[in-house]
Write a structure and sequence with these properties.
Number of strands: 12
Strand content: 5-15%
Structural class: alpha/beta
Distance between the termini: 25 Å
Number of helices: 12
Shape: globular
Length: 429
């Protein structure tokens, strides 16, 4: 007797035909799963060896108070992150509230009035538009401080347009930025090798130009990270991949020492920089989360591949495709209507361990131009390494599926999303 199948059908309400559909799709991607396991093993041993090298001990989990001077745990965490990502130094702080904040202090810490920045992976993620000054007024944006912005769109095949990038770099260019993940765009994620080509081109023009990467959703998808292929500085969120579902909050910035120091002055203030700042007893969960992260990311990316296989089988456009190389954990599905987006999110929410009884509805989420529908029944609020789905309510109605602390949970999210859309008469099996 198949106890799992019986539980899914009889207790958890999965239609038998939907279960069969998902199991058939799962069989078609087993070889891809094997390749992912090799990457996971490499990264797991890399993280382990770095923690051993820095002699992480119980004393590193102790609290500190006040200004946070001489916090051994904070120093240990930042040394580990710098080593894992192959950089000179790092900032890893629970006082960095999210990935957008980590990126904002990176941009604002390095750029100065009169500088020019270029995004060469198309437009930035929605929440960065107000940071840069593309959207919003009176926000203290980079634009208000005299930093100018250029954008190089991707080529039709989704790769970076190196020739155009080369042509638009000027004497004012101080920073070239790459967003690794898809964000709310319909494109494949940017691979580490492609990022390396950008860094080589930029530094070949001028070693003074800073190459910066938004690494959100991309950590541990490869045996290399952007900072292993010439990137000067990168930033990300602890409640995405590297937190492993255990970090309660926070963000990181890794890179060249002189650049990270400038960022630290924006994070706190000039003269203080990285010397102060409590970790609020979070060093244990930050380090344990990092240790677990390679395996957690493995489950999430497998779930994304399964999602692509299932929805492609149902006739929906998906990006990336089932067999495409992946450089983030995000799977986009073009559902074609707002009703389908809401139903998909209802299924994901119903699959969650937390707030499964809540119905997601579109709302005006801070930092976004359009209403956003989001399913996020997570142990850590907003944690997108946990099972979640979201998207702006705008044509062509793309939903973005990601996360799952285990593959089994990510798979259950796929099952419930299809099941809910079927129950609402939005698809046929």
């Amino acid at each position: 007797m198949n106890y799992c199948k019986e539980l899914l059908i009889n207790e958890l309400g999965i239609n038998p035909r939907i279960l069969k559909l998902v199991e058939e799709a799962e069989k078609t991607v087993k070889d891809q799963f094997q390749a992912l396991d090799d990457i996971t093993a490499y990264n797991q041993y890399k993280v382990l060896s770095v923690m051993q090298k820095h002699q992480i001990a119980d004393r590193h989990f102790a609290w500190n108070t006040g200004y946070g001077y001489d916090d051994a745990g904070r120093e240990a965490v930042e040394n580990v992150y710098a080593d894992v990502f192959g950089t000179e130094t790092a900032l890893v702080r629970p006082t960095i509230v999210n990935g957008t904040h980590a990126l904002a202090i990176t941009l604002m810490g390095v750029l100065r009035p009169g500088d020019e920045m270029i995004y060469c992976s198309g437009g930035p993620y929605d929440t960065l538009e107000e940071v840069i000054g593309i959207r919003g007024e009176g926000m203290g944006s980079l634009k208000e401080y005299g930093v100018t912005y250029k954008q190089v769109d991707l080529l039709p095949d989704g790769s970076i347009d190196l020739e155009t990038l080369k042509s638009v770099i000027s004497e004012k260019t101080r920073m070239v930025c790459v967003q690794r993940a898809t964000g709310y765009a319909w494109r494949k994620s940017i691979t580490v090798n492609q990022i390396g080509e950008v860094a080589e081109l930029v530094h070949g023009i001028s070693p003074d130009i800073v190459c910066m990467v938004d690494n959100c959703y991309g950590e541990f998808l490869d045996v290399k990270e952007p900072t292993n292929v010439g990137v000067d500085i990168m930033a990300g969120s602890l409640i995405k991949n590297p937190g492993g579902g255990l970090a309660l909050t926070g963000g990181y910035v890794c890179g060249r020492r002189d650049l990270v120091e400038k960022v630290s002055y924006r994070m706190t203030c000039p003269g203080i920089g990285a010397e102060c700042g409590l970790t609020f007893g979070q060093t244990r969960t930050i380090l344990q989360g990092l240790f677990m992260a390679p395996k957690v990311v493995n489950g999430a990316v497998k779930g994304a591949i399964l999602c692509a296989a299932v929805y492609e089988k149902l006739g929906y456009p998906v990006c990336p495709g089932v067999s495409d190389t992946r450089s983030d954990i995000i799977q986009a599905v073009q559902l074609g209507s707002a009703d389908a987006m809401v139903a998909f999110c209802e299924g994901i929410q119903a699959a969650a361990p937390i707030d499964a009884h809540v119905a997601p509805v579109p709302w005006a989420m801070p930092g976004y131009e359009d209403e956003v529908v989001m399913a996020a029944g997570a142990f850590v609020q907003g944690s997108s390494i946990e099972l979640s789905a979201d998207g702006p309510i705008r044509e062509p109605y793309n939903i973005y599926f990601q996360g799952g602390l285990t593959y089994e949970h990510s798979k259950f999210g796929v099952l419930k999303s299809v099941n809910r859309m079927y129950e609402k008469g939005l698809l046929e099996i």
